[in-house]
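Example complex used in Figure S2.
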Amino acid sequence: MKIFETFMKIMRKHLKLSLIYISVFMVVGIMMTKSSSDSEDGYKARRLRVSVTDLDDTEASRAVVDFIAKNHDIVKVSDDMNKQLDSLYYSKTHIILTIENGYSEKLEHGETTGLFNELSVPGTNMTQLFDSQLNRYIGLVSATIAGGNTPAEASAKASEVLSQEIETVMLNDSGKGSEKEDVQNHYFLYLAYIFISVLINTLCQIHLSLKNKDINNRINCSGVSSYSQLLQVMLGTFVFVIGVYVLLIGAGVVLFGGSMFTEKGMLSMLNAFVFIIVVMMICLFISSFSPSMDVISLIANVIGLGMSFLCGVFVPQQYLGDVALSIGKFLPVYWYVKGCNTVMEKEGEIFSVSGFLICIGVQIAFAAAFFCLTMLISKNRRQTES
Amino acid sequence: MSETVVKIENLVKRYKELVALDHLNLEIKKGEIFGLLGPNGSGKTTAINCLLSLLSYDKGDIEIFGEKMTPTSYVLKKRIGVIMQNVAVLEELTVYENIDFFCGLYVNDKVARKKYVQEAIEFTGLEEFVKFYPKKLSGGLLRRLNIACGIAHKPDLIILDEPTVAVDPQSRNKILEGIQKLNSEGATVIYTSHYMEEVEQICTRIAIIDKGHSIAVGTKDELKNMIHNTETIKIEVMELSDEALKRIRELEYVYKTTIENNLLEVYCSGGTHNLMDILNILNDYGTLLGRIYSEQPTLNDVFLEITGKELRDTEGQ
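Predicted assembly (703 residues):
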């Protein structure tokens, strides 16, 4: 098992770059998961900093101030116009509202204009949010007064109605599943790029070292049979591939917990396993050309980024052009991504066992094709060399 | 009669139209340092690769230790150590790890292997460099590592294919001494080179190869005896009279003379005290003399006389 042992030693020497890829990927994964778990707590209304000056000073105007204070933070600003503008500019306050004199009287007469003087940064969503809340309040107060109530009574009723909380449910883009599931799907999608980068950068380098013509000749001159050589190299390859798979899927289990062991999670893991085997075959295929060690990183980037962009790893497949999709269909990553989307029912895909099996089947076919091509090239090379 | 270790009979290897080995015959006995001498492209490395079953061949038979050598002769292969022309070590492993790896392809027992690796390190003088990676080693040290990787498992037959190419003289001497030591410890050695001085220095028997064919085999003295020339005398002369030159040409062992730029070259075949005879003649005619050389024939002369071309090329000089 000396070749296997040495395979592992060489692997350790080439792991540095792969560990960088994996570390960056994990950090991004953790950040994505953290952000999704934060936002999954539910909808929270935004509180603005509002400065209110009550010139009317009636029961109704004080009720407005109370209503605003319930929904926003009241801050004090100077009466000086320049200072008010400064505080808006530096976002010390978002809205400066003055309740005009005669507010209560105007409401009583059914007037809803000229009640306030508002100073804010125009066109911002904060202004729109505040205006919409205030308009709803005034609308309710006005309607209640029209029903025979005094401005004070109407203000109290409006405050009561608007203080009722409405349950808010966050929905994702396709209207199905949680945001965490979305992140999980992205995690599996990005695995395609990581698998390609890590495997090509490490596995190809090990194979090229051991398959170097002079080293290979030396090994062939030894008492180790060709069969044993092949077996030991393949064992090393499988150990590495399974190691990478377990590490990255393990990280997924840590990040997503039990959702990795649901039906969707298990199918995603199966899809990823088949895909890593395809990538392994691609690595063997690349190694059979015996490229220079220096170009391996370049090849990893071209294949990793190229396939990822063409097949919908970074950009959803539904946003890709017809040409890109047509090309993508001839690449294994496309079928992996499609498999992920089918399992998670993303990007318009609906889960069906047959649809998923087609994705898996096409990937296996790619793996078989790369294996056959590798065998063919290796055989031709052996014949040429002898 | 000593045991035959390697027997090559009528070996033919073609690369399409090119005949790399043309009915090559060799027989190497146990305990020999057998030199394969020939210019670049003469077929030395092809012969070695066929011998090791790294290359298939079109015709002929190869036997090692009395058994037919095939790509699956793993038992035979375990008795052979190979040091190829190119340094074949793994860049990712240290000196120690490299030797251990290649030794491990032959020796499974860890304790024995550790001892063998240590001995190979000491043998090649790499004690100070065991933790170095090949990239950090000089050309000479790399060659020594290459040798250590090939001999660590203590093979009965060691094949060295031009192990001293691009090596400094100090390392070259160390390598040659090492080969002689391995031989004295019982290993049969096949040594290919286009450096005739090296072959003359260490080989007990030599085969000269040209165009894939063995053109002469024997000890260095046997090879030199195959040719007409036994001595070449070169004398710087100020003025040489026709009469003196005539008398020199009349000497029975002189078969050729040339004079160019006051340098008289006298080619002798046989004879004794040749230099003294010629100097006496020149003295008789009062010829003023400059530098005087007497050269014994080299393997290059053997190659030149047999093939009509120089053995040494620019790299070999």
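The radius of gyration of chain B is 24 Å. Chain B has two domains: 4-225, 231-295.
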